[in-house]
Write the structure tokens for this entry.
Amino acid sequence: MFYVMTSREQLLQFFPKGGVGAEIGVAEGDFSAAILAAACPSELHLIDPWSHLEPGSERLDAAGFLGALHEARARGDGFEAPPHNQAGDEQHGRVLARFAGGEQVRVHRQYSYKAVAGFAEAMFDFVYLDGNHNYEVVLKDLQDFAVRLKPGGLLFGHDFFEDDFASREHYGVIEAVNTFLKRSDFRLLMLTWEPFSTFCLAISLDGFAGAFLTNLLDSEVPLIELPDGLASSYRDKAHPRRIGPPRRIPSFVSGG
Ligand SMILES: C[S@@+](CC[C@H](N)C(=O)[O-])C[C@H]1O[C@@H](n2cnc3c(N)ncnc32)[C@H](O)[C@@H]1O
């Protein structure tokens, strides 16, 4: 079974303070700022290429792309910095300036699947995934960073949803999480009940993830407990409104 609670920002309120964490996919650093404010980590590693997605890292090419990368790493090849582009350079600059005073923050301008080689095993209490949303890359990020988690660490990530937009953009987060759960000892601990839901995974409740869950269960925050089988049918449904854009309604109901 897993729990459902309202939002990813609220979830952070229950993180044990002083953890070592990483965020994959940072953009302007808005969620990084929320993590810093609520969870007071001792270290927060921000990983983003602030550049275009690499050719081949999307859609049907991605498995071959990641396989070639694996072989390059096995040969000991180094990885180049991501290609520069003006918008990326400017966003990177804004993030550096935004967190310049924060000694806990380390900024890594690189793709997650390349940056991962620079992190020690069992280093992180929590890792948040919000980078490339392609099935193969999400699965690879889950596998790579699971090894970088301390025992009892928390692996969580954004955009656990399916809808027309996700199909158009070739998102594969739900499928990647399901595959990862089948191939590992991780289990689904929690989903947030909001458009663009966040998922939380853990193997054991002996470390950070367990302390987080205890803090949450001791609180009065509204929670729902649901059976595991429901998670894979989670969808955002678009309800047309009389005025304004459609309302996104998180749903476990198939069809319609
Ligand atoms: C949705 S934004 C992240 C938003 C941020 N997490 C937040 O909630 O404020 C996605 C970001 O992922 C980055 N990205 C894409 N592929 C990536 C990869 N392989 N590794 C790390 N970041 C990646 C993009 O450059 C982009 O800035």
About this structure: The first strand starts at residue 2 and ends at 5. The longest helix spans residues 135-148. The domain at 2-60+78-251 is CATH 3.40.50.150 (Rossmann fold). The mean pLDDT is 92.
